[in-house]
């Protein structure tokens, strides 16, 4: 399957080739032709599966195919002309053709950056992001360019809409990216208002981790006869990410183990997730003292500081990012090889989002959770949600004292049966309960190296890797 076969124009394909995209991802294969045909879309597929291009490429294709606006003046030119006539320039509302709503500023910027990349050869088309925290004159300046594509977080956009700076009457394409997150963040009223301000005959594309519940209701309200695309791929199960759990006795054990694991040779860059902003700061300080180049990222930081930190991460001058869930949402840095859960997330969904910060763009990644003995139940909840078992590991010299404490033998997420155990532990594997211990109940390591694993994943064992059957 090629991008040509999906019907995209050659200027876009050239840009994709230059960006190193050789073939469309599964979600792109399905979404692009339907979107070019003008269909509404409801799409759920896992983080990192290439959804941005799935909506942006067909949109660019369509916007480029539309007749260029009659050679009138841009709002900027009109204002200059007015000034030349010694009139007070009147601000003319921007009239975007496409609007992308995202839950966070970081995501909006990411979408704009990708759009610039995809549209390098489409001179006519401009994309700008309108974000909270951006100085007002700067926003006015961006809007005055009358960009075809606007990428925005809902709150800030409402302000501009209500003060007449943006007019959606010419809008052709509306995209809701990470719709579930936007609803979680309480943007539902803003979204409804924005949608109501757009023409009924627009094309609507909604992307979400799930299409059930509240999101599903809204999705169906704002789309017409949508094509539903749900990709349950290997990426959806994060099969390119090796997951494991390490049990720890206490904080000092956790910190020592983290330091040790951060020195792993295969680690290029890492994100360490903490439950609180305060912990993020404390751990960043501690790691810096220990000689790591670490930085914290959380919601209490000013936007400027957050951007600088993310830039340093992208440039590689920050190696370890200590982050909270919200701040790290959507981070897309392909050189992140490891994700650590210093604390387990509250919701299993967040676990999936967190570990999706590694294994980007088809690479392999490691997701390592440091878990107190009392948190065994939370690990089980995650296993049930992901329908994957997470192997328990022990590192020599960092063994937890309370080995037998959290019998997790009953972790048996969907489909897994004791009989699936067709392999034994590999030599060199370490496990929470020693291989060979015969407790009667199926122990976790008993299900390792599942004969059914059809990993497309040639990563060689680090002596700890264990894969599970194709569940
Ligand atoms: P999602 O929104 O589904 O989480 P993104 O759109 O952020 O995923 O894409 C994840 C990463 O994959 C990005 O780095 C993006 O540049 C890259 N990517 C997307 N599509 C392709 C492709 N067809 N080939 C190679 N890389 C791709
Ligand atoms: Mg995305």
Features:
471 residues; alpha/beta; Rossmann fold; seven-stranded parallel beta sheet; 16 helices; 14 strands; 35% helix; globular; binds adenosine-5'-diphosphate; binds magnesium ion
Give the count of structural domains: 2
CATH class of the largest domain: Alpha Beta
Quaternary structure state of the chains depicted: single chain
One letter per element, helices H and strands E, the order comes to HHEHHEHEHEHEHHEHEEHEHEHEHEHEHE
Q: Helical amount among residues, as a percent range?
A: 25-40%
Global structural class: alpha/beta
CATH topology term of the largest domain: Rossmann fold
CATH H-level homologous superfamily name of the largest domain = P-loop containing nucleotide triphosphate hydrolases
Which whole number gives the mean pLDDT?
Answer: 82
Largest sheet, in brief, is: 7 strands, parallel
Low-pLDDT runs of 5+ residues are: 404-471
Q: What percent of residues are in strands? A: 5-15%
Radius of gyration: 24 Å
In which order are the strands of the major sheet placed? 3-4-2-5-6-1-7
Record field, number of beta strands:
14
Q: State the helix count.
A: 16
Backbone shape: globular
CATH architecture term of the largest domain: 3-Layer(aba) Sandwich
Determine the N-to-C terminus distance: 27 Å
List cofactors, ions and other ligands. Answer: adenosine-5'-diphosphate, magnesium ion
């Amino acid at each position: 399957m090629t991008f040509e076969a999906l019907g995209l124009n050659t200027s876009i394909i050239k840009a994709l080739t230059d960006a190193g995209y050789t073939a469309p991802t599964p979600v792109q294969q399905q979404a692009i032709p339907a979107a070019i045909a003008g269909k509404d879309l409801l799409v759920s597929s896992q983080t990192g599966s290439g959804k941005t291009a799935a909506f942006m490429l067909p949109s660019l294709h369509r916007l480029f195919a539309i007749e260029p606006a009659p050679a009138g003046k841009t709002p900027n030119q009109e204002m200059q002309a007015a000034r030349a006539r010694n009139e007070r320039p009147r601000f003319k509302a921007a009239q975007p053709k496409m609007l992308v709503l995202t839950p966070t500023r970081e995501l909006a910027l990411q979408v704009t950056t990708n759009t610039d990349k995809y549209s390098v050869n489409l001179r006519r088309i401009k994309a700008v992001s309108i974000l909270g925290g951006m100085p007002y004159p700067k926003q006015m300046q961006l809007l005055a360019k009358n960009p075809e594509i606007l990428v925005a977080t809902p709150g800030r956009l409402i302000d501009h809409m209500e003060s007449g700076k943006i007019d959606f009457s010419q809008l052709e394409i509306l995209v809701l990216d990470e719709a579930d997150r936007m609803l979680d963040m309480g943007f539902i009223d803003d979204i409804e208002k924005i949608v109501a301000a757009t023409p009924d005959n627009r094309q609507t594309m909604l992307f979400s981790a799930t299409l059930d519940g509240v999101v599903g209701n809204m999705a169906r309200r704002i789309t017409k006869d949508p094509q539903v695309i749900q990709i349950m791929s290997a990426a959806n199960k994060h099969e390119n990410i090796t997951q494991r759990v390490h049990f720890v006795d206490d904080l000092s054990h956790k910190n020592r183990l983290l330091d040790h694991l951060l020195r792993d040779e295969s680690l290029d860059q890492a994100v360490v997730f903490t439950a609180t902003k305060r912990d993020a700061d404390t751990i960043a300080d501690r790691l810096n003292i220990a000689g790591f180049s670490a930085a914290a990222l959380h919601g209490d930081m000013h936007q400027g500081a957050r951007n600088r930190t993310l830039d340093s991460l992208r440039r590689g001058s920050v190696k370890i990012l200590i982050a909270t869930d919200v701040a790290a949402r959507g981070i897309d840095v392909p050189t992140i090889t490891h994700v650590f859960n210093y604390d387990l997330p509250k919701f299993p969904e967040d676990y999936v989002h967190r570990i999706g910060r590694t294994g980007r763009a088809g690479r392999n990644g490691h997701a390592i959770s440091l878990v107190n003995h009392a948190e065994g139940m939370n690990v089980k909840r995650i296993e049930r949600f992901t329908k994957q078992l997470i192997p328990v590991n022990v590192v020599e010299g960092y063994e937890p004292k309370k080995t037998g404490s959290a019998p997790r033998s009953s972790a048996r997420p969907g489909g897994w049966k004791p009989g699936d155990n067709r392999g034994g532990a590999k030599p060199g594997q370490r496990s929470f309960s020693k291989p060979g211990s015969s407790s009667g109940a199926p122990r976790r390591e008993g299900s390792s190296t599942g004969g059914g694993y059809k990993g497309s994943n040639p990563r060689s064992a680090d002596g700890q890797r264990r894969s599970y059957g194709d569940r």
